[in-house]
Structure formats: structure tokens, C-alpha cells
Design goal:
The protein has helices spanning 3-8, 26-41, 65-84, 95-99, 101-105, 123-131, 179-183, 191-203, 226-234, 254-262, 279-284, 291-304, 323-336, 353-357, 364-389; strands at 17-22, 45-46, 55-60, 89-94, 113-115, 136-138, 161-165, 167-168, 187-188, 208-212, 220-221, 224-225, 241-245, 269-271, 309-316, 340-345, 393-401, 408-412, 418-422, 431-439, 444-448. It is an alpha/beta fold and 452 residues long. A six-stranded parallel β-sheet has the order 2-1-3-4-5-6, with helices on both faces. Bound molecules: S-adenosyl-L-homocysteine, iron/sulfur cluster and FE3-S4 cluster. Residues 63-64, 176-177, 179, 214-215, 246, 248, 273, 275, 313, 315, 344, 346-347, 349 line the site of S-adenosyl-L-homocysteine.
């Protein structure tokens, strides 16, 4: 469409105010920024105040039952808001919209619009039809959609770190996981649009990008695979830090590690979800690697980058988990010595292979007790890791004024650990050499070495 006809066409939004509440993973956070971009083109104005919004979208997550329960709770509050403000449009987008389209639109749930993760270009039309009194629903998943050319509207306030989505969907079908059903098949985004987006971010003052996908190691677009994409992104500037998430252990290649090791601005941090330490359990989870393979990948990381931080995800109490399998998870944690971990209690998800074929048979009290043990052990490992850093020097990228004290800055090391230090004249976006003088289990306390 040329500019002239574009001007003649009335914009659907025309100054109406849009508010979005985001749940779930970084992919959802990235999608919210794409949705804002799509809606702004139609004249909507983004607001951070829910009380002045004409359209409220809730970007939802289905990964565990408690994630969905929270959103049902929010929706009942929305029904109250709608009674107070006639004409208010409420939409549910994201993974739960995909999974529960029928339940969301039946009866009077107070939901006008339902849009799945591949239907965001259609949102202006869906909202318009809701305004005209019909429900707007589109949950079609796509084989191609990557929103490649849409420039996300950055909502993060620090202006230093940004997430860049490089692929969508997932083909792995881990037996417990709902993501392949809510996000559809895996597809990679054109690398030229990725590098262009990263260049723009750098020119606008951003100093760190995180490349996002459910399994970035399987990125491929024509000849460009993930190590090559990483190299191109990190080549934008040595002053730009590059991170990525998430790596699936089955696809983590030596070439990736070689590429990381050869470019100091690719951060020394790998998130490598293990899920369990027991090979028997990993088979039931359909993870396609065993404990030995996983430990082999850890050894390779240490070989290429001895200073690389390793973090993980773990699930307690998946179908049939024995006491020995749980012990194997604890022993894996000790053997690797993770810097930190996301730890979850298994939550059965409707429609997954596990829900259809594997009983959710670990009693809730046992799941909880195992999760508590895992969390306690990780607490010890994180503290030990932080204590090892005391006395060392790191280059810290300053991100924001510390929320506890405004004479301090918070930033992160290449290993992705948070450091708090005296602000002096430094600003977010500066690289500061810092000596670590103390720590808590979650934060390092530092002292700038250079003077300013
Ligand atoms: N694609 C990423 C993770 C996506 S979901 C990967 O494969 O590593 C984030 C984490 O949620 C998973 O790593 C897993 O630990 C957890 N998770 C997924 N499904 C779950 C379920 N049904 N119950 C509990 N935790 C789950
Ligand atoms: Fe879920 Fe497995 Fe895909 Fe991760 S790799 S999103 S855990 S199916
Ligand atoms: Fe949740 Fe969907 Fe992300 S289920 S974790 S928002 S991919």
C-alpha cells in the first residue's frame, strides 16, 4: 500500500488507548512488543495505565496449571472493570488463547478477543469486530509467520538490554510440555532482519541483546545456522554484548562453543535445561539425550570456556519419578555446580503425550518435598558460586539505578550475575570494571576499579 492510500484509509485505533499485561516467558515479552508495534500502526496509543485503557490485552502462558489459574483470576477482575467501564474491550492473546479458545469465549467470560501467537497481524481487525459487537477470534497457527519485518516497540525502560526473537515454535515434543501445541512448528526468522534489528538497537544506545527461541541451537535459515547467526550478530560491534536462550542439550554443538570462545562479546553464560539427572527419566521425558551426553556437553563447555556460567531448568515429580531418579537429579546438580536454576514441580498439561499416556502418579506432597530439596541445594550451589567470585574482577554492563539505593547502579557480568556498585558518574549503558567485595546468594556486591 502506498503512503497516499494509507492516509486515506481511516485508522482503526485512531487515538484509542491500549494496555497489555504480559505473563510467561521472554518470548511472550517479545511478542507484546510486536503487538504494540502492530497496533500503533493502526493508530492505537500504548499506555502503562490500565485505568485509562480502551483496550486491554492479556498475553498469557499455559506452561503450568498455576500460570493459567492466575490468568483466570485476572479475567474475573476484568469482568468487574467492564461493568464499570462500558465499551472496554478485553482480549486474551498468547499461549492460553491458543489452548483454551473455546472456554475463553463460551458464556460470559468477559472476553471479546482471542488471538493465538501467530495471529497478531490480525489483531486490529479482531478488535474492530469486537467493537462492532461480535467476538473476534483467530487462533490459526502458521508454518511461516515470524513477524520478521515488524520492528518491536521496546517497552523495557532501561534502554540497555533488549530481547530479539530469532525463531518461533518448537518441534521437540518433550512429553510433559504444552509449548509445541500452543506455539506450533519451529520456524526461523530471516537473519538479515535480525542483524538489521540488532544494528538499530545498537545505534539507539542498547548494549546487550538476547537472541530468543525455544531451542536456538536448531536455528537455520538457508545456509545460516545458529553459530553463524551468533557470529554475525556479535560482529555488529565489540561494544555489544550478545546472549541467547534457550539451548537444548541435544543440539549443542562444538561449533557453537568455538564461536562463543572466539568472540569475547558473546557472553560467558549458557542456559542448558537438564530437566532431570536420571537417564531413565530423560527417556520418559522424550528429551533425546541421557545423563552421560549432558555431562559430555558440560565438559565441552568447560573445555572451551572455563569461565562460562551454566544455569538450568529442573522438574521435580514427573510421571513415575523414583527416589533414585530424584537423587540422580541432586547428584547432577552437585556435579555441574550450576550458577542458578529455575525449578518446577511437574504440572500435568492437557493434550500432551504425558497427559495421554503417563500417569501423574507422584503424590503432591512428595513432589513438594523433592522440589524443596532441589531448591535448598541450588541455594547452596549459588552461594558457593558467588563466594568464589569475591576478590575477582569483572567487566560489568551497568543497566539501571539500583531499586534499593539511588546512589548505586545494578548491572551484570558476562556470566549474567547481578552486581551492585557505587554509581558515581556512571550511567546505564556504561561498561565498568568492578572488583567483587561481597555477596548474597543472589547478588554480588562490587567496587568500581576505574575512577570516574
Ligand atoms: N524450550 C525451553 C524451555 C521452555 S519452558 C527448553 O526446552 O529448555 C521452560 C521450562 O518450564 C522448561 O524447561 C521446564 O523445566 C518447565 N516446564 C515445562 N513444562 C512443564 C510442566 N508441564 N510442568 C512443570 N514444568 C514444566
Ligand atoms: Fe517444551 Fe521441550 Fe520444546 Fe522446551 S524443547 S519448549 S521443554 S517441548
Ligand atoms: Fe508460557 Fe507459552 Fe512461554 S506456555 S512459557 S508463554 S511459550
Amino acid at each position: 500500500m502506498n503512503i497516499a492510500t494509507n492516509r486515506l484509509r481511516p485508522l482503526t485505533g485512531a487515538g484509542r488507548r491500549l494496555f497489555i499485561e504480559t505473563y510467561g516467558c521472554q518470548m511472550n515479552a517479545g511478542d507484546t512488543e510486536i503487538v504494540v508495534s502492530i497496533m500503533q500502526r493502526e493508530g492505537y496509543v500504548y499506555t502503562e495505565r490500565i485505568d485509562e485503557a480502551d483496550v486491554i490485552l492479556i498475553n498469557t502462558c499455559s506452561i503450568r496449571d498455576n500460570a493459567e489459574q492466575r490468568i483466570w483470576g485476572r479475567l474475573s477482575e476484568m469482568r468487574r472493570l467492564r461493568r464499570e467501564r462500558p465499551g472496554l474491550i478485553v482480549g486474551v492473546i498468547g499461549c492460553m488463547a491458543e489452548r483454551l479458545r473455546e472456554q475463553l469465549t463460551e458464556g460470559d467470560r468477559g472476553v471479546d478477543v482471542v488471538a493465538g501467537p501467530d495471529a497478531y497481524r490480525d489483531l486490529p481487525r479482531l478488535v474492530r469486530s469486537a467493537e462492532a459487537g461480535a467476538k473476534g477470534v483467530n487462533v490459526l497457527l502458521s508454518q511461516e509467520e515470524t513477524y520478521a519485518e515488524i520492528a518491536p516497540v521496546r517497552l523495557d525502560r532501561n534502554g540497555v538490554c533488549a530481547f530479539v526473537s530469532i525463531m518461533r515454535g518448537c518441534n521437540n515434543f518433550c512429553s510433559y510440555c504444552v509449548v509445541p501445541y500452543t506455539r506450533g512448528v519451529e520456524r526461523s526468522r530471516d537473519p538479515e532482519t535480525i542483524v538489521a534489528e540488532v544494528e538499530t538497537l545498537f545505534a539507539n544506545g542498547y548494549r546487550e541483546v538476547t537472541l530468543l527461541g525455544q531451542n536456538v541451537n536448531s536455528y537455520r535459515f538457508g545456509e545460516v545456522d545458529f553459530p553463524e547467526l551468533l557470529r554475525r550478530t556479535a560482529s555488529v560491534s565489540p561494544q555489544l554484548r550478545v546472549r541467547f536462550a534457550t539451548s537444548h542439550p541435544k543440539d549443542m554443538s562444538d561449533r557453537l562453543l568455538e564461536t562463543m570462545a572466539s568472540m569475547p562479546n558473546i557472553c560467558r553464560a549458557i542456559h542448558l535445561p537438564a530437566q532431570s539427572g536420571a537417564s531413565t527419566m530423560l527417556r520418559r521425558m522424550n528429551r533425546k539425550y541421557d545423563r552421560e551426553w549432558y555431562l559430555g556437553r558440560i565438559a565441552a563447555i568447560r573445555r572451551y570456556m572455563p569461565d562460562c556460567a551454566i544455569t538450568t531448568d529442573l522438574i521435580a515429580g514427573f510421571s513415575g519419578e523414583t527416589a533414585e531418579e530424584h537423587e540422580a537429579t541432586l547428584s547432577l546438580m552437585r556435579e555441574v555446580g550450576y550458577e542458578s536454576a529455575f525449578m518446577f514441580k511437574y504440572s500435568e498439561r492437557p493434550g500432551t503425550f504425558a497427559q495421554r499416556h503417563m500417569p501423574d502418579d507422584v503424590p503432591d506432597a512428595v513432589k513438594s518435598a523433592r522440589l524443596t530439596e532441589i531448591i535448598a541445594l541450588q541455594g547452596e550451589l549459588s552461594l558457593a558460586s558467588n563466594r568464589r567470585d569475591v576478590g575477582r574482577e569483572f567487566e560489568v554492563l551497568a543497566e539501571s539505578v539500583s531499586h534499593k539505593r539511588d546512589d548505586q547502579l545494578a548491572g551484570r557480568t558476562s556470566q549474567n550475575k547481578v552486581v551492585v556498585f557505587d554509581r558515581r558518574d556512571w550511567r546505564p549503558g556504561d561498561y565498568v570494571r568492578v572488583r567483587i567485595t561481597g555477596c548474597t546468594p543472589v547478588t554480588l556486591i562490587g567496587e568500581p576499579i576505574d575512577n570516574r
